[in-house]
Amino acid sequence: MEVVKEETDVKLECEMSDKMFLSDNETVLDAVSSAEVKHFRCLECDKTFPFKKSLKRHAVLHSGVKNFKCDECGKQFAQKGGLTQHLLIHSGAKNFKCDACGKLFARKSTLTKHLLLHSGVKNFKCDECGKLFAQKLGLTRHLLIHSGVKNFKCDECGKRFTLKENLIKHLLIHSEVKNFKCDECGKRFAQKVDLTHHILIHSGMKNFKCDECGKLFAQKGSLTKHLLIHSGVKNFKCDECGKRFTLKETLTKHLLIHSGVKNFKCDECGKRFTLKETLTKHLLIHSGVKNFKCDECGKLFEQKVDLTRHILIHSRVKKFKCDECGKLFAHKSILTKHLLIHSGVKKFKCDECGKLFGRNSGLTRHLLIHSGVKNFKCDECGKRFARNSDLTRHLSIHSDVKNIMCDKCDIRIRIHFDIRVRIRTYVKIYIRVRIRIGILINICIRIRIRI
Q: What is the pLDDT of residues 156-209, one digit of tens each?
């Protein structure tokens, strides 16, 4: 049957018998023998119904008239049945349980829709990207993403959203209310979905693999973000320094550096950081825990990133060259620090002895000498040192291992520090020889003049 709209009533035409009907009493019941046969079609949404009465009730939804109002929240409904079902939400009663996951629902219709998720059946397809959905509502919401329309704006940060529910969830971030806690590490989250994703990290399961580099991820979203790195596309640019980033969130964190704000302080040494994650990594230094070991020399590191950088030293690959002196470096950061030597700028001064340094790290290490504190002890001879680097160099004396070969004379040494010692020794010898030769020449000249 097909619906024909008129001013006063809904007119129905039976496709089976070419008859017209205006009231329920005239409905041909034998043409609609079962509830599964639906011959009454709505011209607005193409939805079909087995009885004309059902179609009439449905037509009210398209009229836009909502005479039934909820006293609790003010929400309005076109049908009384809709209001009745809605009131179950405020009652807090959830009598319908999903046997698959145990989730409870206030309405049976909501449970029925939810069961489609567990069935795996996805009959609704997006024509834009081909994504499938179990419910038509899911597809309808998804289509808004392709429309590009974002009518819901966050007053706190200006971020816009396609769906109102996404904005409501986002506002929890600014409220700083985090009711969902991880039992493993104690980390708290504003949304339950974020906690669910986080728990995957502790499970150790990493089912998402990058085809480019083979790296594994616990979450699909993390893999998606990682793939942008291989694409080489960096659409987010910092207006302060011109540096470009692949992800917007990385740019947001980077901008904090230019702000100069450092709200995270280390209780051990007083050092301040812009980002909380940087402070977390820094705390590993004070913990003394070094879980990352170099297979080449056995050196231990607190962080994996430090081990990765260290491995480049053994590879002898030095891609970064100093234009001033031609010296090569394995890391760009080391080259940047090295360039300060050529600049001659020394902004950091020691208040104890007045010595100047080009880098703050150099001054920090130097101050340990004046402090008199020597926390690093050699287990072999008991000698103590103010800096860990000095202890490391000292330990090479007790070791017979000589891993480094001099490029000039092919002599194997223990550490790079030995090269500097040898060079200084040779220079001193050379100067002494030159002085003695000069003395002999002067003596010869005087003798010859006398003769």
A: 888 888 888 888 878 877 777 788 888 888 888 887 878 888 887 788 788 888
264 within 8 A of 274, measured Cβ to Cβ: yes
CATH code, 2-63: 3.30.160
CA quadruple 290, 291, 294, 295: dihedral sign? positive
Q: What is the pLDDT of residues 37-70, one digit of tens each?
A: 667 888 888 888 888 888 888 888 888 788 888 8
Cα angle value 37/41/45 (rounded, 5°): 125
Residues 6+ apart with CB under 8 A from 169: 190, 191
Give the pair of three-digit tokens for residue 95: 């009598």
Q: Quick check: helix, strand or coil at residue 335?
A: helix
Cα(273)–Cα(264) distance, rounded to whole angstroms? 5
Q: Which residue has the tokens 């939400």?
A: 89
Q: 3-class SS at 288? A: coil
CB neighbour list of residue 228: distance below 8 Å, 6 or more residues apart = 246, 247
Same fold for the domain at 2-63 and the one at 292-421? yes
Classified by CATH at the fold level, domain 292-421 comes out as Double Stranded RNA Binding Domain (3.30.160)
Question: Residue 390 in contact with residue 374, Cβ under 8 Å?
Answer: no
- Give the total residue count for the chain: 451
pTM, rounded to two decimals: 0.38
CA dist., res. 345 & res. 337, Å (int): 12
Instruction: Indicate the residue type of 359.
Output: R
Q: Which three-class secondary structure state does DSSP give residue 264?
A: strand
Instruction: Name the token pair of 16.
Output: 């089976």
Rounded alpha-carbon distances, angstroms, from residue 165 to 25, 73, 170, 172: 44, 16, 9, 11
| Terminal alpha carbon distance of the chain | 140
Domain ranges, ordered by start, for the chain:
2-63, 292-421
